[in-house]
Amino acid sequence: MANWDKRYAGAEARLFGDGPNEYVREVMARSDVAPASALLIGDGDGRNGTWLAARGLDVTAVDISRVATAQALAHDAAAGVTVERITADAAEWTPTPGRTWDAAFMIYLQCEADVRHRAVRMATQALAPGGWFVAEGFAPDPDGTGELGPGDADLLYDRDAILAQLAGMRTVESLAGTVFLNEGVKHTGNGCVLRLLARKTG
Ligand SMILES: C[S@@+](CC[C@H](N)C(=O)[O-])C[C@H]1O[C@@H](n2cnc3c(N)ncnc32)[C@H](O)[C@@H]1O
User: CA–CA separation, 197 vs 176, rounded Å?
Assistant: First the structure.
């Protein structure tokens, strides 16, 4: 597992930018998406969780890095919002039985495929009926058009493998291709990504 504590502690600027991820912003701008609560898996230093909380959502965020979580809490405080932040490994963390959220976000959770796929199953099971699952991450790049992302294929969001984890969900859109990212020192340039929006049918 990558040493995320070291990466966040050594960062001179926010690794993935000050603002929210563009796809999170896009999804939240849809007229049919109006969650009151959100669960974020791998929220890092909080750029998405803080932003969602500032829009009035009750946000719970889980990340394996204690350093990132401490930074995220500081950003929450500076923004005047409160986020329930939990330092935990997505390989093991499970919410309290019966607890649900209206939306779950898995934005650049960078970990091994088996952990990522467990996180998809866990997060979608924790959705209320009609709840939204939103994901973005670096994807396999067959044409080699991307400049960003981890070299290890196990860390990439494979569309078919992720879709296979979605039980009781309707895929609203799934887009795999190269986009220009402008999100901090680590996410600036062309990146081949998967963007996925799915809705719980039950
Ligand atoms: C590329 S960063 C993205 C952070 C944030 N989602 C964002 O977009 O700014 C990947 C994040 O995944 C977290 N992470 C990696 N493996 C994890 C795991 N097994 N459980 C929970 N979080 C994990 C890291 O600590 C890091 O914050």
Answer: 12
